[in-house]
Write a structure and sequence with these properties.
By secondary structure, chain A is mainly alpha-helical. Chain A has helices spanning 33-48, 54-65, 70-75, 121-135, 147-154, 158-170, 193-212, 217-234, 245-249; strands spanning 174-177, 181-184. Chain A is extended, with a radius of gyration of 23 Å. By secondary structure, chain B is of the alpha/beta class. The radius of gyration of chain B is 21 Å and the shape is elongated. The chains are: A mainly alpha, B alpha/beta. The interface between A and B is large, with 41 and 39 residues.
Chain lengths: 253, 310
Amino acid sequence: MVIDKGNGVPDGGTDTWPAGGGLDSDQHLRVSDAEREAATGQLAEHFAAGRLDQAEFDDRAGRAMSARTRADLSGLFADLSETGAPAVPGRPEGGGTPGSGPRGPGSPIEFRLDAASGVPTYLQLVHQVEHALRLGYLKPGDQLPKVRDVVASLAINPNTVLKAYKELETKGLTAGRPGQGTFIQATLGQIALPELAGLHKSLLGWLTTADAAGLDQDGIVALFTSALRDFHERRGGTGDRRGAASGETEDVA
Amino acid sequence: MTMNIIETSGLGKRYGSTWALRECTLAIPAGHVAALVGPNGAGKTTLLNLAVGLAEPTAGGVTVLGDKPAGSPAALDGIAFVAQDTPLYKNLSAADMLHLTRNLNRRFDQRYAETRLAELGIPLKRKTGRLSGGQQAQLALTLALARRPRLLVLDEPVAMLDPVARHDFMATVLTAAIDDGVSVLLSSHVLAELERVADYLILLSRGRVQVAGEVDGLLACHRLLTGPAAEADRYTERPVVHARRGEAQAHLLVRVGADYSVPPGWESHPVDLEELAMAYLREPGAAALPGPARARALPLETGEPSEVTR
C-alpha cells in the first residue's frame, strides 16, 4: 500500500513502512496521530498476512499508538517483511525464505492460507485458483506458482501442493508441462445464463419460505451451509462440479 | 518401491523402573514429513534418540533407512539430527561450526552451507551464542542439511522460535524435502501448524503409540458427529474416540469406515488434524492405527500388560 504523502507520513518512494533512504536521519522526529494510525494499519496487514499472531499484533499496535518518535515506529517493523501484496513467488521474504535456484517469470497469482477457515490446505489452493479464474486474474496460458516456490513461501508440505495441482489437472483446469510447470488451460465457465436465472429464482422462492418460517439471515446461512456440507459429504466430498444432482440428493443415510 | 525410513518392532526403553517407551511398533515410509506428537513425557525424545542411535533399546529393535541398525556407521551417515534447543558451541563462530562439522563428517556440502548462510544473512564471524534464536536454529539446520542426509530428525525444532522464525525454519525443512527428497521426522507439541507441515502422524501417549498413519487417511476416517445427547449411546458400535456431552447436545469424534453414513438427525463434520490429535490425547485408551499395510503390526487396545515388562 502506498501512503499518501500529503499526510506527512514518510514514504521514501517504497510502499513499505520502514521506508528506506532518508528515514534513518529522521528517526528522532516526533510522530503524529496520522502516522501512528498508518503504522497500526500496516501492522494489521502483517497480522492478516499471518506474520503476527493476535498477541503480538495487540502488543505492537499498543506500542504504535503510544510511539513518540519515528524510531519507535520503525522498530515495530524491524523483523517484518514488506507489507502489501504477498511476495512474488521465490522472492525472499522476511530475510529468511530459503532457496536459490532458477526463478521463472513468476505467476500472476500468489497463494495465501486461512488457518481459521477449517478448509483443508490443498482445497484452499484449489479454490484460490478457481476464484482467480472467475475473477480474471488467471487466464489460459498463465503459469501457476512453481510447487517449490509455494512450499517455500507458505511453509507447507510439498505433497499438499502436489495434491492441489493434481486436483486442478483432474478438473481439466490446468495442464503440466514437463520441466516447465503447471499452466492454466481452461476457463472456469459459469453455468449457462438461463439455467442460472432459474436457479436464482428458485433460491429466492426458498428464501421467502425460510423468511416466512421465521428464520433470520444468520439462521438461513447456517441452514444453507449445513445442507451444503451434507450434500458434499454424501457425494464423497470431492467437490465434483455438476453431476446428476437429483439422483444424489436422495442418497441419504 | 518405498522403503521404511524408520522401522521399530516392540521397541522399548526403560529408565530405572520407568518405561519411557514401550511396545513401539512402527513403520514410517520414506518420502514423508512425519510429525511425532504427544504430551510432555510421552516418550517423543526417547523414540528419536533410539532412532538416531543416541540411546540403546531395553527391548525390541529399530532400523533406519531400509534395514540399517540404528547407530551403525551406515545409519549415522544417512541421518542428520538436530536435538532440542539447537545444540551449537556458543563460543565458536558460525564459520568455526562449519569447519568443525565438515571435519567431523564424511560428507559435507560446504558450498550449500555457505550459500545458505549467505541467503539467511547469518554473519559467519559472529559467535553462535550471539546470534538470534531464529538464526541459531537455521544454522543448526543448515549444518544438518549440508551433510546431505536422507533422513532429517528434528526434536522440537520450533518450540522456542517466534512465528516468523518458525515459518522460515519450516520453509527450509520443506524445501529440502522437495529439492533433495529428504525424509523428515520431527517431534512437536505445537499442534496448530502441523496440518500444513506434516503428511504423516505418529501420536505417542504415555510411552505408547496411539495413532500412526498418513494424515489424509486419518482425516478421511474420522468425523465429528453432532446430535441429540440422548442418542449418543446408540452409536457405540461406531468407535467413538472422544465424546463431549451437554444436557441436550453431544459431539462425538468417531472413527468411520468406508461404508459410513450419517445417522438420521445427526450432523457430520470433517475433522482437522488438531481436533483429531486432541481427541486422542484426551483419551489415552483409544487407538487408531489405520492403513491396510500396517494394521497387523500394532496392538489396537492398550491397557493389557505385555511381555515387554519382564
